[in-house]
TrEMBL record, chain A:
Protein name per Swiss-Prot or TrEMBL: Carbon-monoxide dehydrogenase small subunit
Ranges annotated as spanning the membrane: none
Domain of life from the UniProt record: Bacteria
Any one Gene Ontology molecular-function term assigned to this protein's record: metal ion binding
UniProtKB/TrEMBL annotation, chain B:
Organism in which the protein naturally occurs: Cribrihabitans marinus
Ranges of residues in domain Aldehyde oxidase/xanthine dehydrogenase a/b hammerhead: 21-139
Keyword Oxidoreductase: yes
Protein name as annotated: Xanthine dehydrogenase, molybdenum binding subunit apoprotein
Pfam families, alphabetized: Ald_Xan_dh_C (PF01315), MoCoBD_1 (PF02738), MoCoBD_2 (PF20256)
Database matches in SMART domains: Ald_Xan_dh_C (SM01008)
Length: 161, 787
């Protein structure tokens, strides 16, 4: 089987994969990084969003071999070395932006990509950007609030408008 | 000033940290040494006779361990139905066999025919493609009314027809209801469809079976809302494994919404195969497979008639429903259209005469069972739609018509068998009018009209029966299980506590909310209390989480066990302080003697229990651990009033939700933040049903909406911020916390207000539309506008 090598959360990672092995499978099965979740098989749900070379990508849409040499960041690499949550993770906890937690890794990674692109997004921009991430628990209310808060905006006031 | 701990506070959820850092432990994250993988070969036709399954070529494929077919399950039990319904003639329902792998016939697309166990998942899938299945196509029955016609193809050859049961409730009222409707001043009739939905928790189902031959012990890791129920059903009815040799673990579970209550074939298969092969066997559902194998929800077709007198008082209600069971009876399928639907038809109103008829029908479709709300959304939708239609026919305000007919005195015995212990429907409607700013609607409509949009307002009430349920009562009604729950409070020597609960948390935040209760009762810090759940070997027993029952039933068991702890610890404290037990008070984690300055701390007492050097050993045992089982005296009855404002684009029929407000009465609330979140999620599912979601089967029984490309899940840009309020609180009168349950309310209460709002919008534009069936897609709304 072919070998693949990439950098995952700042550390070198390699493994043997089949040509058909998806990046999501490589992360979960070869590397044991089970924080990246797989919620569908049509690249619709977004539970598997990771960053590849700084861009948000659904890890089920890429073959592992396509990530050869890439910098891949997953949910496991988001908190500080001491375990402290990053600004987005903290905002999700503060605003109850997760319930069952299954879509959460993809939501956090997608939110990070959005805020990199648009540091102060409007409610509409957030909802639009989350089009590819499905959550069945929260009704999105508190996810949108969390992202508003993570961008330094007054989420409570915006939600009450 | 809001509390910062205990009952009524909103501490941050402690489960969040693991979910936010990718360190949760979902079933698919579990990999056991030596595990094999199973792929199920599923039927691609809705109905057919299996003439042969040739696995010869597949057996020789790389990595194949063994291939199982229906023949391997002869002599093994089938999947049981947990509720036997008795029909209106006193006959028990027709109950077909439900084999783990199909035997003789396939009855829906997705019915498992063979299971390939291989060294890798890919090898199992590859080998499944080499299995030759000889299936003779049979005509499929998809439509319920067609399935009941004489000569219709039978889903189960050994049954007399496709009718599971013909249920009438209350049968003795039937003629009186007919007569009241005949003589009424006004009768409003509505025919409607409550379409079939798919629960779609974001985590697909997973099962990992494990077996220890040395100890003859089986373990199943599974995505379940109720591991003990799975142990009971699978052990007793399917595989014949006694409880002490069968452990069921449901670790972190990524949402359930009902679909993970039931015992599924894949769970039994993995447990069975692990024993046969003496190695772990793992199955992970794909989303496509989930659409064909998870029990689906709703699927009722109803005619409802509401009779009113000359003063617009409701005098009688009659409903006639066909409820789709699908091809087999899923675990609680039969209870949903009957005891979770018919008994709620009074709603919030004092209608004196009610008759409900339900015909449950077998079809060649995926089995149908409970989905968030389970029967109550169907009841609420019919009732609140027909009331709205009646108001429009009579030219009266829909809110005023509801208010006029509200039940206002409690307890209230409905004509459909249940007794509401408490409620205040006027208060929730008043609160709704305030938070929805209904007085500002006219101005908002004018503004929408200026932009060429039609704006509509829809309001509805709901009531539900939660906290299922008094075991003796449900036993009379056909339940094959008790519906109590259990908790053990284990106090450790240093005063920290583990609470083992039978409820299962898969998004509801029990790990945060349950300790708030115990900590408040004992006056200690919440961080000293942890919840253990989801493992049949670690908790005493439990019937699990569904029907908004966790806090009302299991929470009550936890309170009772904690009360036992308090009683025993007071005895110990009395001994330590040489005082009378009757004089001991516990406050803020300190035991004091009334009228003195004597005190001992919580930790001193717990330490004495485990280091009993100075201890009343003649009177009480050392240690501090108590268990309670709690069987509720009645259902709980959360209720509320919801308002939706929509805009309809008259050019395209596109509906947008502009505002949504929910005023709920959940009784007492332990964690308002979590309760808000539960309502938000329920609203999204209800709005999803109203506008977006729906299963589509073609005439041959192919599920056309079997992926997220085809089944319209609500997304962030389909939904608004919601305005929710639960400050109206009439505490439940019969459980110790006074709580009612909040998990299903949003999904139950929201669909009618959306449809009522769209009808209101269309009528405001001069369209003579009095109903549109869900989902209100642009094409349906546009077609309705064209007449």
């Amino acid at each position: 089987m072919p070998q693949v090598a990439m950098t995952v959360n700042g550390k070198p990672a390699r493994g043997e994969v089949e040509g058909r092995t998806l990046l999501s499978s490589f992360l979960r099965d070869n590397l044991g990084l089970t924080g990246t979740h797989v919620g569908c098989d049509t690249s619709q749900c977004g539970a598997c969003v990771v960053h590849v070379d700084g861009k948000d990508v659904k890890a089920c849409t890429m073959f592992a071999l396509e990530a050869e040499g890439a910098q891949v960041d997953t949910i496991e690499g988001q908190a500080g070395a001491d375990g402290s949550l990053n600004v987005i993770q903290q905002a999700f906890q503060d605003h109850h932006g997760l319930q069952c937690g299954f879509c959460t890794p993809g939501m956090v990674m997608t939110a990070a990509a959005l805020l990199k692109e648009t540091p102060k997004p409007s409610e509409a921009e957030i909802r639009d950007y989350l089009e590819g991430n499905i959550c069945r628990c929260t009704g999105y209310h508190n996810i949108v609030k969390a992202i508003l808060a993570a961008s330094g905006q007054d989420a409570g006031a915006i939600a009450a408008e | 000033m809001p509390k910062d701990s205990g009952i009524g506070a909103s501490p941050k959820r402690r489960e969040d940290v693991r979910f936010l850092t990718g360190t949760g432990n979902y079933t698919d994250d579990i990999n056991l040494r030596g595990q094999a993988y199973v792929h199920f070969l599923r039927s691609d036709v809705a109905h057919g006779r299996i003439n042969g399954v040739n696995t010869d070529a597949a057996e020789g494929m790389p990595g194949v361990v063994r291939i199982f077919t229906g023949a391997d399950f002869e002599g093994v039990g089938g999947l049981p139905c947990g509720w036997q319904v008795t029909d209106r003639h006193g006959e028990v329902m027709q109950e077909p066999a439900h084999p783990v792998l199909a035997q003789g016939k396939v009855r829906h697309v997705g019915d498992p025919i063979a299971a390939v166990v291989a060294e890798t998942y890919e090898q199992a899938r590859d080998a499944a493609e080499a299995i030759e299945v000889d299936i003779e196509d049979l005509p499929a029955v998809i439509d319920m009314k067609a399935a009941l016609k004489d000569g219709a193809p039978k889903v189960h050859d050994d049954l007399t027809s496709n009718l599971c049961y013909d249920w009438g409730f209350v049968e003795e009222n039937r003629e009186a209801v007919d007569e009241a409707i005949r003589n009424a001043a006004h009768v409003t009739t509505l025919e409607l469809v409550n379409q079939r939905l798919v629960a779609n928790p974001m985590e697909p189902r997973v099962a990992v079976g494990d077996y220890s031959r040395a100890n003859d012990e089986s373990t199943l890791y599974t995505t379940s809302q109720n591991p003990h129920v799975i142990r009971l059903l699978m052990g007793a009815f399917v595989l014949g494994i006694p409880e002490h040799k069968l452990r069921v673990v449901a670790p972190d579970v990524g949402g359930g919404f009902g679909s993970k209550i039931f015992h599924y074939a894949e769970e039994a298969f993995c447990t069975f195969a692990a024993r046969q092969l003496n190695r772990p066997v793992k199955w992970t559902s794909s989303r496509s497979e989930a659409f064909l194998s998870d029990a689906q929800g709703r699927d009722h077709v109803t005619k409802i008639e509401l009779a009113l007198d000359g003063d617009n008082n409701f005098v009688a209600l009659r409903t006639d429903t066909h409820a789709n069971m699908g091809a087999y009876l899923s675990t609680f399928s039969t209870s949903v259209p009957t005891w979770l639907h018919g008994v709620l038809m009074a709603g919030n109103y004092k209608t004196p005469l009610i008759y409900v008829n339900v015909k449950a029908v077998f079809t060649n479709t995926v089995p149908v069972d409970a989905y968030r709300g389970a029967g109550r959304p169907e009841a609420t939708f019919q009732l609140e739609r027909v009331i709205d239609k009646a108001a429009r026919e009579l030219g009266v305000d829909p809110i005023a018509l509801r208010r006029q007919n509200f039940i206002t005195e409690f307890p209230y015995a409905t004509p459909v068998a249940v007794e509401y212990d408490t409620g205040d429907y006027v208060a929730t409607m008043d609160k709704l009018e305030e938070i929805a700013d209904l007085s500002g609607f006219a101005a908002r409509r004018a503004e929408s009209e200026k932009r060429g949009k039609l704006r509509g307002l829809g309001v509805n009430c709901y009531i539900e029966a939660c906290g299922i349920a008094p075991s003796a009562l449900v036993g009379q009604l056909g339940a094959r299980a008790g519906l109590y729950d259990a908790a053990t409070v284990r106090v450790n020597a240093t005063g920290s506590i583990s609470v083992m609960v039978g409820a299962h948390s898969h998004g509801q935040g029990h790990e945060t909310a349950f300790p708030q209760v115990v900590a408040e009762m004992l006056g200690i810090d919440e961080s000293m209390v942890d919840i253990v759940h989801g493992d049949s070997s670690r908790i005493p027993f439990g019937m699990g989480t569904y029907g908004s029952r966790s806090l009302a039933v299991c929470g009550s068991a936890m309170v009772r066990a904690t009360e036992k702890i308090i009683n025993k610890s007071k005895k110990i404290a009395a001994h330590l302080m040489e005082a009378s037990e009757a004089d001991i008070e516990l406050k803020d984690g300190q035991f004091t003697v009334a009228g003195t300055d004597k005190s001992v701390a919580w930790g001193d007492v717990t330490l004495a229990a485990y280091v009993p050097h100075n201890y009343p050993l003649e009177e009480i045992e050392p240690g501090l651990e108590e268990t309670a089982f709690y069987d509720p005296a009645n259902f709980t009855y959360p209720a509320g009033a919801y308002a939706c404002e929509v805009e309809v684009d008259p050019e395209t029929g596109k509906v947008t939700i502009e505002r949504f407000a929910a005023a709920d009465d959940f009784g007492n609330v332990v964690n308002p933040m979590i309760v808000d979140g539960q309502v938000h999620g329920g609203l999204a599912q209800g709005i999803g049903q109203a506008l977006l979601e729906g299963c589509v089967y073609d005439a041959d029984g192919q599920l056309l909406s079997a992926s997220y490309m085809d089944y319209a899940m609500p997304r962030a840009d389909d939904l608004p911020f919601y305005s929710v309020d639960h400050s109206c609180q009439t505490p439940c009168t019969h459980n110790p916390l006074g709580v009612k349950g909040c998990g299903e309310a949003g999904a139950i209460g929201s669909p009618p207000s959306v449809v009522n709002a769209v009808v209101d919008a269309l009528q405001s534009g001069g369209h003579k539309v009095d109903h549109v069936d869900m989902p209100l897609t642009p094409s349906r709304v546009w077609a309705a506008m064209q007449g």
